[in-house]
Amino acid sequence: MSELGPVAVVGAGTMGAGIAQVAAAAGHPVVLVDALTGAAQAALDRMRAALDRRVDQGRISRSEATATTDRIRPADSLADLPECGLVIEAVPEDLGLKQRLLSEVAETQPPTTILATNTSSLDISTVAEAVPDPERVLGLHFFNPPPLMRLVEVVHGETTAEAYLAHAAALMTAWGKTPVRCTSTPGFIVNRVARPFYGEAQRVVEEGLADPATVDWIFRERGGFRMGPFELTDLIGQDVNYAVGASVWEQTGHDPRYAPTEFQRRLVEAGRLGRKTGQGVFSYAAEPGAAVPEPDLGLAERLSSSPIEADPLGRTLAMLVNEAVDLVHRGEASADDVDIAMRLGVNYPKGPIEWGREIGLDLVASHVAALDRAFPGGRYRPSPGLTDGSLDE
Ligand SMILES: NC(=O)c1ccc[n+]([C@@H]2O[C@H](COP(=O)([O-])OP(=O)(O)OC[C@H]3O[C@@H](n4cnc5c(N)ncnc54)[C@H](O)[C@@H]3O)[C@@H](O)[C@H]2O)c1
């Protein structure tokens, strides 16, 4: 670890501060840079206060907390960076900004320095274009909050060299994280494979089959998910969830599989963004517990034994498996990595490939085909990977 040298994190916001804490806790000297004067120092002060609370709760030792924050040096300019083994940028999601920043860093850092971006949606090859030696540019997609979330997607662009990817993945393991590898496909693994979890539920409601509270109940009680799609998107923010879906849809050339729903677009337009605005799918204005309407358990029972088109959970699982299988079929990620990513990144009770094998990939294929017949137009296109035997165990 010591041969890596210092780690620089550029952007001391939500993600950058968390990533700096993870790197420092793993023993690296860290420089945390933010363009806004005093922002890196303020982030470090917040981190100290948060770690103090954890010490008071007996979760970490005082010496551990102090050692972590003592390793972080705040800075207001890239000119303050020493030679680093790894630079991770976590500035806002703006392609031009990230390109300018990485090309500036590349000029001053030695050619062996790994240049990583924490982008959630930009294409790594395009981000790397501005760097003269793009083989050292890769994605390290941490999840929020970085100190608590174990998953890191290690993303390679077309130009990234294997040696840098292997080094970065080994480093994430040494930091106590679980790295998964994927290509720079739109949404990477988690934000791509999760699309049907939200989209199918929204469509079921649009089609008048069930109300949101009943759908959420089915997902929790019958599917084993921690939260249903409607309560979860109210928590994430309907606007944030809509933007992720729309970005995948745009980047796939408007593939109908990812087309945003009218249901969610209307919520966003009406400013019903979820918990943060007091109203989303559900209302949060009343006292706690009064927000979510009662599910219709009789309806839930009837839907669960309905044909696939009218079965919210069966339909969503078929599409989650289809999406996961398709990613593997196209060579974007391994089956194991897809399953790990969905369990750790979004807390699914099972990885979708494992789930698909349990249901039977042939049965999933027949469900997707039935959905395709019921709702033609390409949204329910079955992946060839469901039937070509490549994912059979
Ligand atoms: N928030 C999340 O849940 C999440 C999760 C995964 C990935 N991401 C990605 O991480 C990145 C950062 O997101 P965030 O939520 O931490 O943003 P943020 O707005 O909380 O923080 C961004 C920070 O970058 C600073 N900054 C802006 N321009 C800069 C520059 N030129 N040089 C140095 N610092 C600069 C800002 O002052 C700010 O402190 C984005 O690419 C985002 O897509 C976010």
TrEMBL record:
It comes from the Bacteria. Keywords: Oxidoreductase. Transmembrane segments: none annotated. It holds the Pfam family 3HCDH_N. InterPro entries: 3-OHacyl-CoA_DH_CS, 3-OHacyl-CoA_DH_NAD-bd, 3HC_DH_C, 6-PGluconate_DH-like_C_sf, 6PGD_dom2, NAD(P)-bd_dom_sf. The keyword Metal-binding does not apply. Residues 187-284, 315-384 form the 3-hydroxyacyl-CoA dehydrogenase C-terminal domain. Belongs to the 3-hydroxyacyl-CoA dehydrogenase family. This is 3-hydroxybutyryl-CoA dehydrogenase.
